[in-house]
Amino acid sequence: MKYRILLVEDDECIGPLMLEVLFKSGYDVTLADGLTAVKRLTHFGFSAVVSDFKLQDGDACDVIEFMRGKIPGLPAIVTSGCGQQVEQDCEDRKVTNVVFLNKPFRPQQLLDSLNAFGLTKTRSSANAKS
Questions:
Q1: Is the residue at 128 inside a domain?
Q2: pTM for this entry
Q3: Is the peptide bond before 104 cis (omega within 30 degrees of 0)?
Q4: 110 is a domain residue
Q5: Are 19 and 30 in contact (CB under 8 A)?
Q6: How confident is the model at residue 130 (pLDDT cuts 50, 70, 90)?
Q7: For residues 113 and 94, what is the distance between their CA atoms, to the nearest angstrom?
Q8: Which range marks the domain in which residue 95 is found?
Q9: Which residue of 51, 55, 66, 120 is 20 to 30 Å from 45, comparing CA positions?
Q10: Terminal alpha carbon distance of the chain
Q11: Does residue 129 carry a pLDDT above 70?
């Protein structure tokens, strides 16, 4: 099974890099640059959402609340360089069951976080090595 990840990142350098890491690891990835882009989506068959906390038009809590309105219990990962303040903000807004990754993080940490949700990465035949 190929898992679908919604990646929400408004940094024009970081977003494509994270997309590449996820794609090369076997995930089907949709990149959105903010809350407005997420709200314009027409399909919601995602297995997880990975969102930067600070977005130009909202934050990760807004994204998670919107997406969980479409997919209850959707696994969520929040990335941020703001440390524990982000965790407190999410807790204050009752956005729970979230994994937090502090920037900078290694690509493997992101993949490990997805694996912790049971979204074990798949490998396409192009990526598989014998």
A1: no
A2: 0.90
A3: yes
A4: yes
A5: no
A6: very low
A7: 21
A8: 4-116
A9: 55
A10: 20
A11: no
